[in-house]
């Protein structure tokens, strides 16, 4: 297997996730797109770990998974707080700090 | 052409490699399609289930790369916990189930442009930088013992920081989401 096939798959997933973050208005869907981005990073880390034989990449993939879990918890709590205050999860409505 | 085919046929690992490449292609195609559906579908619940397909595909790729423990953790944490959390978030925020509300911005063509340009740049630099690098053909599954040894010796302090971060994040999530 080429290393590049995994790296290109991860790059494609990353770009799809970035598109989701840019174009989605619903807060929950933006968080899902961020999950896509974090997953592509994990694929990169594990692919490099398999190529070099070092286990460091897998350890950091585990750390990324833990940080992703924390991020989703906080993110959904923030989305819930936004929903409670604005009665919607449309991120375009959240412009209180817009100059 | 024929010479290289004969050389590949004489290689003992060739059937395994072909099978690996075919399964990689199938899983990758399913993952890309589902990821595109996650960011384009008009139904929030469908997006969550397409996200499950992407995460399961990533888990399969990890098994293909010999990282069994990461694959199992991926299934447990992502599919078991995070997607359920997403579904609860969707239910609690009463997001539209049938897509009568617009979920994407009007400037989505700019997003397509951005991500396609970025994919082109990333793809060019990856092909340029790692063009011929191969994953070793005799790739053995990584022993979970090796991973745990690395976590609890070399990376002990990051591990402890991660646990404190998780605790802080959980308490913070409760405080932010609490009705007071």
Write up this protein.
The complex is a heterodimer of chains A (99) and B (180). Chain A has 99 residues and is mainly alpha-helical. Chain A is 79% helix and 0% strand. Chain A has 3 helices and no strands. In chain A, helix 1 packs antiparallel against helix 2 and helix 2 (27-52) runs antiparallel to helix 3. Chain A starts with a helix and ends in a 13-residue tail after the last helix. The mean pLDDT of chain A is 91. By secondary structure, chain B is mostly helical. Helix content of chain B is 76%, strand content 0%. Chain B contains 7 helices and no strands. In chain B, helix 2 (14-40) runs antiparallel to helix 3 (44-64) and helix 3 packs antiparallel against helix 4 (68-92). Chain B is globular. The relative contact order of chain B is 0.07. The mean pLDDT of chain B is 87. Classes of the chains: A mainly alpha (99), B mainly alpha (180). Chains A and B meet through helix 1, helix 2 and helix 3 of A and helix 2, helix 3, helix 4, helix 5 and helix 6 of B.
């Amino acid at each position: 297997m080429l290393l590049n096939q995994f790296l290109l798959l991860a790059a494609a997933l990353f770009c799809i996730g970035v598109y989701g973050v840019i174009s989605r208005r619903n807060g929950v869907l933006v968080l899902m797109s961020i999950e896509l981005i974090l997953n592509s990073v994990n694929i990169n880390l594990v692919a490099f770990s398999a190529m070099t034989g070092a286990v460091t990449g897998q350890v950091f993939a585990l750390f990324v998974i833990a940080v992703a879990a924390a991020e989703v918890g906080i993110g959904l709590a923030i989305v819930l707080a936004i929903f409670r205050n604005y009665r919607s999860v449309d991120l375009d409505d959240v412009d209180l700090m817009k100059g | 052409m024929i010479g290289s085919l004969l050389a590949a046929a004489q290689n003992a690992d060739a059937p395994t490699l072909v099978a690996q490449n075919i399964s990689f292609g199938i899983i990758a195609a399913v993952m890309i399609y589902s990821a595109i559906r996650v960011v384009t579908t008009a139904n929030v619940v469908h997006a969550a289930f397409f996200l499950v397909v992407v995460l399961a595909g990533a888990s399969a790729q990890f098994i293909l790369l010999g990282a069994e423990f990461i694959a199992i953790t991926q299934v447990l944490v992502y599919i078991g916990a995070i997607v359920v959390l997403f579904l609860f978030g969707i239910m609690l925020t009463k997001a539209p189930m049938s897509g009568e509300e617009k979920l994407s911005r009007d400037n989505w063509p700019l997003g397509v442009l951005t991500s396609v340009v970025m994919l082109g740049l990333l793809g060019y630099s990856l092909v340029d930088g790692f063009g011929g690098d191969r994953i070793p053909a005799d790739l053995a599954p990584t022993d979970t013992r090796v991973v745990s040894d690395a976590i609890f010796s070399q990376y002990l302090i990051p591990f402890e920081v991660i646990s404190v971060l998780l605790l802080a994040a959980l308490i913070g999530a409760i405080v932010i989401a609490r009705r007071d």
